[in-house]
Design goal:
Elements: E1 2-7, H1 10-21, E2 27-32, E3 42-43, H2 51-60, E4 65-68, H3 71-75, H4 78-84, E5 89-90, H5 94-101, H6 103-112, E6 120-123, H7 126-133, E7 140-144, E8 153-156, H8 159-171, E9 182-186, E10 192-200, E11 204-206, E12 211-212, E13 215-217, E14 221-224, E15 229-232, H9 239-259, E16 265-275, E17 278-285, H10 292-296, H11 304-313, E18 327-335, E19 358-360, E20 363-365, E21 371-373, E22 377-385, H12 388-399, E23 407-408
Parallel strand pairs: 1-2, 1-4, 2-3, 4-5
Antiparallel strand pairs: 6-9, 7-8, 7-9, 10-11, 10-16, 12-15, 13-14, 15-18, 16-17, 18-22, 18-23, 19-22, 20-21
Helix pairs in contact: 5-6, 7-8
Bound molecules: adenosine monophosphate and glycine.
Amino acid sequence: MKVLVVGGGGREHAICVKLKESSKVDELYCAPGNGGTAQIATNVNIKATDIDGIVNYAKEGSFDLVVVAPDDPLAMGLVDKLNEVGIRAFGPKANAAIIEASKAFSKEFMKKYNIPTAKYEIFDNEEDAVKYLDTQEAPIVIKCDGLALGKGVIIAQTIEDAKTAVHEMVSDHKFGSAGSTVVIEEFMTGPELTVLAFADGKIAVPMISSRDHKRALDGDKGLNTGGMGAVTPGADLSEEDNKRIYETIIDPTMKALVKEGRPFKGVIYFGLMLTKDGPKVVEYNARFGDPETQAILPRLETDIFDIFQATIDGTLSDIDIKWKDCCSCVVVAASGGYPESYEKGFEIKGLDTCDHLVFHAGTKMTEDGKIVTSGGRVLCVYGEGKTLDEAIDSAYEGLAPITFDKMHFRKDIGRTLGK
Ligand code: AMP
Ligand code: GLY
């Protein structure tokens, strides 16, 4: 089978590694890919958001499957457009991907179907939002409606800060059209947990849980990033806890999406907070998380190509998805300055002496075969062990020989879980 993976981050490298393990995949391509995918697949120089470019390339190359990993092309309808020209594609259609692409949509959807989430109001003008804020207490959360690279969420510690955030989003268009509508919601507290699930339009089969680390600096300080590391499992959950998450969140979400005429196929991401009143949804995403995927997929024992096919065919209930019995951790090495401005083009040294799985993100291969930095999150190193502490130690051991100028990583990934 001939497979194209769309995207170019660590998540896409991890997906490529699993597809490469499948005996059914004989030709693997990645658009645009990175320095890591270049070593196991053929990189194709087409941007993930160049919808026509991807569709034409997949059609001309008679691909058997296209895996659409990032949020933007999903929201732009890449899966729909591939299907229109007869190409099988893994991922939700645009009308289901909207659960990530519009926070206003997803909040109304959860309210309608009684899916637990923070209380909220939606505004498209500053005046009404300010009036509402005068009746609320801080901390309070202000979110852009649309996709904003994980940066469109402000946790305001005072009502004044909340008003400033609304002004910047709605009136100053700091996030372009993504912020012209804002969601103002109740501040929740509790540990966060990511649950990804394979979905086939009818049922969702949860993967092992994981925990992302969104802030740039140790101790959950600094700016929000795309994610600086992740561990599996994401929490010490009992059978009862898992059942509650499935019965109050995962299953009702899948059923409600069918009712709304938006059956979801692909990977559905439940960003949860384990509050004292039970698990609540912080956000839905319509795709694999990054870097959670890099911590999760190495533990997958079932052929990922078969799972992808089953999500498209609606036959997930026929597959027994198996996971390796261990804990895992990935630590992200980022460019100094990320998530704000940073330099690129530094040579990455030590990769040849690292005997761990390394997933590349912002890297590229130069003409003379060197791997250099080309993005904010540069790579992540995977470790596993019988206990979480062993997995964390292993990931940091793997990272030890790797260096590049201005490299930055968190030293406490997974260390604060349960504490
Ligand atoms: P989101 O992009 O919606 O996942 O939000 C990014 C991060 O902001 C989340 O991972 C949480 O850490 C935090 N956050 C979002 N919404 C809330 C909320 N209602 N209460 C507390 N923290 C929140
Ligand atoms: N790790 C968070 C995300 O993928 O959105």
